[in-house]
Write a structure and sequence with these properties.
With 131 residues, the protein is mostly helical. Helix content is 54%, strand content 0%. It is built from 5 helices and no strands. α2 crosses α3.
Length: 131
């Protein structure tokens, strides 16, 4: 994992990709914020990398922007590269697509979102306990 960027570099990269994907979707910050139930200032903080995006936040953003979660990580050193040979993420890229859930019934979408939130919270608790 030595080839991965520092946390702040990842936050900045994700913010830049968010801006690119938002602009590709022709959505102003204010409209994106409204669709997510957050302020345009919060969108700006995500885009500038000053606030960190949660996993559930990435999933919600991808859904609203019509993007795959993996698109946020494109171009990030150490992700989806073929540096490690045939067993690398690049070799497995076809199996890494995020499942689109927008065609599922709303109750299933909600349960999946709740599951992602629970996993994130559990991971955050585990990380705090490890410190």
């Amino acid at each position: 994992m030595d080839d991965l960027p520092e946390s702040y570099e990842i936050d900045i990269h994700l913010g830049r990709r968010l801006r690119d994907l938002r602009q590709r979707a022709s959505l102003p910050m204010s409209v994106l914020g409204e669709q997510l139930g957050i302020s345009h200032q919060q969108i700006y903080k995500y885009e500038s990398g000053s606030n960190r995006l949660s996993t559930s936040g990435l999933v919600r953003l991808a859904r609203v922007l019509g993007a795959e979660v993996s698109e946020f990580f494109e171009g990030l050193p150490g992700f989806l590269s073929s540096e490690k040979g045939a067993g690398s993420l690049q070799a497995q890229h076809s199996s890494l697509h995020v499942v689109r859930v927008d065609h599922l019934p709303p109750i299933i979408q909600k349960r999946l979102a709740d599951l992602v939130d629970a996993i994130v919270k559990s991971s955050e608790r585990d990380a705090l306990q490890d410190q």
